[in-house]
Specification:
alpha+beta; Glutaredoxin; four-stranded mixed sheet; globular
Length: 182
């Protein structure tokens, strides 16, 4: 089954909003992604974004790279959910996405990422132990800093333990060679 790329989905959401149609409900999209993951023996990669979020845009660009897209296609079923939009852009939001963000332990900072098995069990998420300690966790957002990249690579290993070292290296190389500023 071929999935639409995230940028095309955004374009479709914008077009649907413009003609008064609703964006797809988050729970329906999640159910479809889980069904696909079950059939294809993959993990679901859920990522929460907003149109105003520069780091979310960087995540979208990262996932659209041909080399990264090939790795994702082998191991994950991506699910992009829009949350936290301003009043004038509410039509972009997926109804119920904020509830899913909360259910998966997501913070208010975006992007937030979570990997699920096909049954919905969390395999890994983008909250790492806080440098402040005390058991608190902080969202890495889009991984740029070395500690964030390490956490993200660990997320991939946890979500797709069968991932070939060459695929992991592809993702690592892209992340480590990017510019750290927005």
């Amino acid at each position: 089954m071929k999935l639409l790329n995230p940028l095309l989905l955004v374009a479709l959401y914008v077009q649907a909003a413009a003609i008064g149609a609703e964006t797809p409900r988050a729970d329906e999209l999640l159910a479809k992604a889980q069904a696909t993951a079950r059939t294809e023996h993959k993990a679901v990669f859920v990522y929460f974004v907003a149109s105003w979020c520069g780091w979310c845009q960087r995540l979208d660009s990262f996932l659209e790279r041909d080399d990264v897209k090939r790795v994702w296609a082998k191991h994950f079923v991506p699910l992009r959910l829009v949350v936290h939009e301003s009043n004038e852009k509410q039509a972009l939001e997926n109804s119920g996405a904020s509830a899913l963000l909360k259910r998966f332990g997501g913070p208010p900072e975006l992007p937030y990422m979570v990997f699920l098995d096909p049954e919905g069990t969390v395999l890994a998420d983008s909250r790492r132990p806080s440098s402040a300690g005390g058991g608190s966790r902080e969202n890495i957002g889009f991984p740029v800093q070395p500690v964030e990249v390490e956490w993200f690579l660990g997320m991939l290993k946890g979500a797709a333990p069968q991932m070939a070292e060459s695929d992991l290296k592809t993702v690592e190389t892209v992340l480590r060679n990017q510019k750290p500023d927005l």
